[in-house]
Amino acid sequence: MTQIAIILGSTRPGRRVDTVAQWVAEAAGRHPAVQAGEASVELVDIADHELPLLDEPAPAATGIYQKAHTKRWAATIDRFDGLVFVTPEYNSAIPAALKNAIDYLWAEWNHKAAGIVSFGLYGGTRAAEQLRQTLAEIKVADVHAQVAINPYVDFDFTEAEAGVCAPGERQEALLTTMLDEILEWSRALRVLRAPAASAGPRPGPT
């Protein structure tokens, strides 16, 4: 089974990333591969891991993780074959908490496929482009399809003051295409992920 993490990319109080991620999880649950038991999706909230500003003495590429919170985070990400990053756009960039969470690890990210669901006034597209640059550096294959959520179009404000993410059929169709691509690439990259990512100290990128 291909396991996909839906990563909530913000820790801000009052954030909207949780409602967007919940919509992603619900829509992903309707994907044929998930319904057939060939794939699974799981919400992964970086807020639950309580990662301080990067405090590891050694670079992540060495694999020498000393802090308990780093080891827990590494074990979480290591379980997955593919990733969906759900990120808002803060000042034309991804949230600092998401960048910090990415920087903690190295091998646990390598050779995995990822898709991006961004949201913001302009669909979060500038944050998504910045995230693509970061993913390339940690050897994550980001797929072409992307979902860009605009809160003024894709949110329902009748149920809650902060609104509930409720995109139309077009956005779910884009998400389905993105998941198709993540599954294809995750399977293709499996041979490169065969060695355990957390097998101990390892050299960094050359």
UniProtKB/TrEMBL annotation:
Domain NADPH-dependent FMN reductase-like: 3-150
Gene Ontology MF terms in the entry: FMN binding; oxidoreductase activity
One Pfam family of this chain: FMN_red
Stored Gene3D superfamilies: 3.40.50.360
CC terms in the record's Gene Ontology section: cytosol
InterPro entries registered for this protein in UniProt: Flavoprotein-like_sf, FMN_Rdtase-like_dom, NAD(P)H-dep_reductase
Transmembrane regions: none
PANTHER family attached to this UniProt entry: CHROMATE REDUCTASE, NAD(P)H-DEPENDENT FMN REDUCTASE LOT6
Protein name per the record: NAD(P)H-dependent FMN reductase
Organism expressing this protein natively: Lipingzhangella halophila
